[in-house]
Sequence to fold (812 residues):
Amino acid sequence: MRPIEFKVEKKEGIARAGILKTPHGEIKTPAFVPVATKADVKGVEPTKYKDLGIQTVICNTYHLYLSPGEELIAKAGGLHQFMGFDGPLITDSGGFQVFSLGEGFGKGVSKFLPEHVSEDDVVTVYDEDVASQHGKLAIVDEEGVTFTSHVDGSLHRFTPERSVEIQQKLGSDIFFAFDQCTAPTSPFEFQKEAMERTHTWAKRSLKAHRQNIDANNKQAIYGIGQGGPYDDLRRQSAREIGEMGFDGFGLGGSFSRKYGDNSLQSALNMLTELPEGMPVHGLGVSEPEDILLGAAHGVDTFDGVTPTRNGRTGGIFTKRGKIQIPNAEFKEDFSPLDEGCECPTCQHHTRAYVHHLFRTKELLGPVLASMHNIYFLTHLTTQIRESILNGNFNEFHDTFLAQYKQ
Amino acid sequence: MRPIEFKVEKKEGIARAGILKTPHGEIKTPAFVPVATKADVKGVEPTKYKDLGIQTVICNTYHLYLSPGEELIAKAGGLHQFMGFDGPLITDSGGFQVFSLGEGFGKGVSKFLPEHVSEDDVVTVYDEDVASQHGKLAIVDEEGVTFTSHVDGSLHRFTPERSVEIQQKLGSDIFFAFDQCTAPTSPFEFQKEAMERTHTWAKRSLKAHRQNIDANNKQAIYGIGQGGPYDDLRRQSAREIGEMGFDGFGLGGSFSRKYGDNSLQSALNMLTELPEGMPVHGLGVSEPEDILLGAAHGVDTFDGVTPTRNGRTGGIFTKRGKIQIPNAEFKEDFSPLDEGCECPTCQHHTRAYVHHLFRTKELLGPVLASMHNIYFLTHLTTQIRESILNGNFNEFHDTFLAQYKQ
Fold:
């Protein structure tokens, strides 16, 4: 018996509306999942989650491992208890964060090696210039990744087994296998190597999870597919990960229009190779156009930092595209951030007010902007869901994009 | 017919519980009034006001005049509309801010004078060192105050008439006459001069307000009494301001234990000189002990920045005194910020979680801490009110202080 259950309610083409049942409640899909890296959605008070259409959030294993540590969270009674949220919780494996510490910045010569790793085993090392600039370093070997903390520079090591162990202590409803993330610009040979390593680590993650659970297991594990912009690799990755017995599939690497059509189409082609009805999560997908495109190809859940990252600097999603609310043009604009929006910010405040808050550097500006942006994306996925259920997703898709591009 | 109506419901000694009826609803007193300097309570979303026991907030004329300007707020339909709050609103006159720009930092030689002001007229000038350091400057003359903006260094002038004009455009339910604030350390002659000037300005403020209103006037004006730590001055100020026909009285200057017993007792003695039943506001009074003491002497409303200022750096009010939540001792403390507290933060989160948010520099830390602190003070005034209505205020007073000092 799987700890989660996914039921596809209706399809339109390969787009689908479904219900993902987890031990902490249902997620109606497609669904946008706000990022709660350090066990909080930046600036958003958990009692507002419901008003913002938030069904679930995704926390980060790397960050929570470093601070406050999985042992403390376990002592608190798990992540739900620790952060005061009783709904479904997802944790990312930390693979992407390790990627962004190391390979994400390029290759070079390592400054140190863990004792058991020989020079020959090192497949990804950090660019010295970047390392000296950021004080960051991550080394991937066949067994795992050794990295320095971005907080205090201390030395740490993640293996698939360790990532699973941490995520079990966190107690998320859904967690991800530890993967090796790649940049879309990396060459074929490197992508292939990383993909193969990701598959090996996926098996080890699954094994480690199964060794440690009993019949009452309440945690689902998703495998992550990689392969960069290469169609063959992507399809192979989906087939292999899809067959391993995971509870769901994570679309890894870089799935966004901004990485080019090849990369995008190859990523989306993965879905055709997966077992029928396996839930799919798009990792780091949070631009409205990308969510729409992902949903059109059968992606069920999406996470990403765009609503809060934009929100902190005054970038606001509207039906007609993104606006920068601190710009002078909004000084005397007494309309809501987005006409017709039913989020708490738009129900009570104007563009002029939020503009004023940003101009005078008030903490409430980022708070109100982030709330609006999150609602914008959860509402977008709600609209996608409803249009699929009503059989007019294609129409909604085209209408939304025609307006959004203006 | 006055725009506000104050009814004392019950007294215990000279402490009193009352209802202050304003055009935007009732304020049950004693009441703590959070500070919304720039038309927002820092980090607190207005839809949470009710849950935090907030009945009214106090905005700042000086800050709103500089940005976004009273004309823009008038265009928005007034301050209520602009900030999206439909309850009673109070505005401070800007006198204190001008004080903190100028005399608050000491005396010295002015770098400039407005054209119509001669050197001889200058009674308060700014310390050059402080001015060069902060780029701030304020000069008081008999007619008003000339000052440079803390935002862009531009030159501005407030007179009693101008302050009233701005506050009428803001449209607050209750506003304050423009006063000359003094530091408790200023000598007697200076306090006397400032008090007399404040009285002249009070008459001019009242006259300016009356000239500009019709029978539908919906704005009340409070006069502010000064006099520093000198009992004679304080009593004289209360008598004179009390007789002028204001709708209420503002306890000005420095009314807090931290300025010493003389200063405190003199300020509180003012209340015995006021007309029976005139509502009294304690300006800048927001330490729990000071609120309790003020209420014991018949102060009805209190404002101050302690809940948000402390909240931003992790200072937390509890029944047993203030704690610093970022301190290591709270890392594994899974109890609420304050045991038994019914604020949204304490209902959902632990000290360990808020500690974690501060340690990892998350925006939500200051938000949750500020919310708790505001509730702590609104709840304190609610408890004071209930104890007066129940006839056991003295008991509550002593019990609270005995515990708070631990």
About this structure: The longest strand of chain B covers residues 5-12.
